[in-house]
Design brief:
Blueprint: H1 12-26, H2 33-41, H3 46-68, H4 75-94
Helix pairs in contact: 1-2, 1-3
């Protein structure tokens, strides 16, 4: 599951939550009302959705602070990051969606 949550046997609400969190993390400017509607359709309340967004934002904040302060990552962390970017590109290709711009060459490194 840690490598590809889509392969796990998840409930509809859990799948919708992870799909939302993934999109919010990778392409926040592409979020729209449909993303919230998908969560509601899966059974999440507005309070639940707020909690999901807060937790996702918090973890993204932590990552950005570590990266922004230039803290060093281990090789295993860099490999997982690159693998995640590659998986995100595959998923975007499968869905016929473009990945957000990569002005700093993150996916190329």
């Amino acid at each position: 599951m840690k490598d590809d949550w889509r392969k796990a046997d998840l409930s509809k609400p859990d799948y919708a939550m992870l799909e939302y969190a993934e999109k919010l993390s990778l392409a926040p400017s592409m979020m729209n009302e449909g993303d919230i509607a998908n969560l509601r359709d899966a059974g999440w309340t507005d309070r639940d959705i707020l909690d999901i967004a807060h937790v996702c934002a918090y973890f993204n904040f932590r990552v950005r602070m570590v990266d922004g302060l230039g803290l060093e990552l281990g090789d295993w962390q860099l490999e997982r990051s690159k693998a995640g970017a590659e998986r995100a590109q595959v998923l975007a290709d499968q869905r016929g969606q473009a990945m957000p711009a990569d002005p700093w060459g993150v996916r190329a490194s």
